[in-house]
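Note to self: the last two entries modelled the partners one at a time, which told us nothing about the interface. This time every component goes in together.
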Amino acid sequence: MLDSILFYFFAGVAVLSAALMVTRRNIMHSAVFLVTTLLAIAGIFLQLRAEFLFITQIIVYVGGIMVLFIFVIMLVRLDVALHRVRFRLQKFVASLVVLALALELVVILALADKLPASLFMKESVAANHLPPNSEALAGSLFSSYLLPFEIASVLLLVAMVGAVVMAKSRRRSEES
Amino acid sequence: MMSPAHYLFLSLALFLIGCIGVVTRRNVIVVLMSIELILNAVNINLVLFSRIYGDVAGQVFALFIIADAAAEAAIGLGIIIAFFRNRETVEADEMDLLKW
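The predicted structure of the combined assembly is written out below.
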């Protein structure tokens, strides 16, 4: 009972603020609604007993990435942004894409009796119990997935250097 | 606990909203934020199946996706700042140097 209340609360907050994020005109409002969505998704992670990902989501996404976004929104002057419409087919293409994906959803629902029944049973989520989360995650990360882990660290280093190079002022490099 | 289908439909809804954002919005920053939303929708699926099968590998891959999202945000925002310095705008419609 408590589980379903928590699920519907977090899912409702996530979907509602995601919809608001996409539709608001003010970019800063969009960013704040995205923070709300990310926090709600972190709640979903916690409900799925992924404690380490819950904390990572809050620290990395809300504390890191979103702060970066808000910095850039403040650096970029919004008032001068033009609101001319050049590509008029945009809304049409968008509704076409969404219709195609929604059709997929309808097909899935129509084929519900052909899908494995475990998909709709509440017991299947709780069937297996993971060991203590952070410990198991670290064990897997540093044994089976050591090479991808190292590649990810190199990727982050490259991204950091690239971001610094691109955001650096061009004029200073021409003078020197 | 809820059934797996609940989580899958939540993930699908967030993915659809992210797709709408990517396709309809003209501000590049909002497009980047919608991409973050799509990546998070995928993460929900990974964590759900990691939970169902009792295998922690799904959460490891979710962790890699978060690292990727951080790298992508840093690079994307760097490009946006460089573009804004040159063209004084962040609207996707203004990025038409290669347009016929």
